Amino acid sequence: MKRRHFLAASAALPFARSAMASQPLHVRPEDGPHEATFMMWPASRAVHPERAFLDILQSTIADIANTIAAFEPVIMLAAASDHARAKQMLSAKVTLWDIPTDDLWARDAGPLVAHRGSSRLVSHIKFNGWGNKQVHTHDGALAGAIANRLGFDLLDSGLFGEAGGVEHDGHGLLMAHESSWVNENRNPGLSRAEVERRLLKAFGAERMIWAQGVRGEDITDYHIDSLARFTGPNRVLINLSDNPDWEDPFHVAAYETYDNLKAAGVDLEVIPEPSYRRVKDVEFVASYANYYACNGAVIAAQFGDAETDEIAREALVRHYPGREIVTLNVDALGEVGGGIHCATQQLPSA
Fold first, then answer.
1. Do 319 and 232 contact (CB within 8 A), yes or no?
2. CA dihedral 301, 302, 303, 307 (to 10 degrees)
3. pLDDT in tens, 260-297
4. Is there a contact between 142 and 110 (Cβ–Cβ < 8 Å)?
């Protein structure tokens, strides 16, 4: 069987490149056709000092990768020294690339691939460890390394941040929490208006909806992809508590985000957070919204609450008709503040 090849964009003639450079970027909808999914192998003991828990994280990442690989190619990024261990857990359908990693958050450190005309490039939002809160020696260089391997241009957006901190519908609309962007730990000295201008340009979008979010209470400064996701043009699925604690800044911010989206005319559907969870830690992230739409399927979390797990699954069936809905126990990711969407980054088809 031939190994699948991931083809670099063909070199353009100088006059063609010049003409192409004048065209706007376009980041396509996440649920559009993918050539592959990028994932990252968690390896750093500086980030995850407990060997036993790192083993669990690696097993969880392998489960997600193997599940996605049944629907589309998966490229696992890992240092060559980690390949032997990774191969013990990964399906033969998962391709390993020798690109060293610290942690597992491909949504944030991985490449944001945009189209400019018929060519692909990396619209580069620079990753700095969520505002220098975590080691990112390898992860900070990851998007550039992938662009180099694929032969894609790397176009600097002029921003520090993470793709998990902004949602796009691929049809001109973005939404984000200010706390993840208008923040001295990412973009010192930049106003919200300037951050917005640069984000719109980086995604090829026209309009942006902001909400305050929450600063300093979690490592991401409240990424919006743990709360709300675009499932189509101007259409959002949002995960809210049925019994909000108005002393909890995340509950307050979540409902403010809901109000801002509603006021902006977005088509909203609410799904509840789980009432019961296997992990009781108050800092555990139990987000049904943090799913991944790949070719022919949606890979989502279940938390052990039969009622809300089923409500979330049925919502995904409605929002992604014709796709298989696959739910996994990814509690280990929730314990370190993320989910399946956070651990994946798509390579859109050419």
1. yes
2. 140
3. 999 999 999 999 999 999 999 989 999 999 999 999 99
4. yes
What's the rounded Cα separation, in Å, for the pair 42 and 103?
Answer: 4
Cβ atoms < 10 Å from Cβ of 349: 14
- Counting beta carbons within 10 angstroms of the beta carbon of residue 254, is it exposed (0 to 12), middle (13 to 18) or buried (19 or more)? buried
Q: What is the residue extent of each domain of the chain? A: 26-348
As a whole number, mean pLDDT of residues 131-153 equals 98
Report the distance separating Cα 124 and Cα 241, nearest Å.
34
CB neighbours of residue 164 within 10 Å: 26
Distances (CA, A) of 182 to 104, 112, 177: 25, 20, 9
CA nearest 223: which of 179, 160, 188? 179
Evaluate if pTM is beyond 0.90.
Answer: yes
Residues 2-33 pLDDT 10s: 323 333 333 334 444 444 566 899 999 999 99
The first and second tokens of residue 287, run together, are 């987000």
E-state strands within 267-341: 267-272, 292-294, 297-301, 324-328
Question: Hey, which CATH number is domain 26-348, 3.75.10.10, 3.10.110.10, 2.60.120.700, 3.90.220.20?
Answer: 3.75.10.10
Count of helix runs (H) and strand runs (E) in the chain: 10, 16
pLDDT recorded at residue 6: 35
Largest CA distance in the chain: 60
Could you list the beta-strand ranges (E) of the chain. 34-40, 74-78, 94-98, 113-116, 119-126, 153-160, 166-168, 173-177, 207-211, 228-232, 235-240, 267-272, 292-294, 297-301, 324-328, 345-348
Chain-centroid distance of CA 172 in Å reads 18
Check if the beta carbon of residue 199 is closer than 8 Å to that of residue 159.
yes
Show the beta-strand stretches assigned E in 23-102. 34-40, 74-78, 94-98
